[in-house]
Amino acid sequence: MSNDSERLIRLEETIAHQAKTIEELSDQLTQQWTVVEQVRAKLDRLTERFLSLEEQSIEAPANTRPPHY
To answer: How many Å is the maximal CA-CA distance in the chain?
Structure first.
């Protein structure tokens, strides 16, 4: 084989490996985005719950002395 043909084969192999790597990275990114969305939704729910509990605690009666004082 000539030098040009070997060079072309190496370039094609490199491109094929890079294309595979890009596809794998894209799949990983898609999976990570799904996880991020799930965590964001859970954080939103927890924030709402925290705010609700905080509002309830504000309405709690004031601290009073226990009867044994």
So the answer is: 101
